[in-house]
Amino acid sequence: MSKDGSKETLTVTDNRTGKAYELPITNGTIRAMDLRQIKVEENEFGMMSYDPAFTNTASTKSKITYIDGANGVLRYRGYTIADLAENASFLEVSYLLANGELPNRSNLDEFVHNITYHTLVHENIRQFIDAFRYDAHPMGILTSTVAALSTFYPDAKHVSDPETRRLQMYRLIAKMPTLAAYAYRHRRGLPYVYPDNDLSYAGNFMSMLFKMTEVKYRPSPVIEKALDTLFILHADHEQNCSANAMRSVGSSQVDPYSATAAACAALYGPLHGGANEAVVRMLHEIGSVAKIPEYLEKVKRGEVRLMGFGHRVYKNYDPRAKVIKKLAYQVFDEVGKNPLIDMAVELERIALEDDYFGSRRLYPNVDFYSGIIYQALGLPVDMFPVLFAIGRTPGWIAQWEELLTDEEQRIARPRQIYLGYDERKYVPIMQRG
Ligand code: SDX
Question: Domains plus CATH for the chain?
Answer without folding.
Answer: 9-50 (no CATH), 60-408 (1.10.580.10)
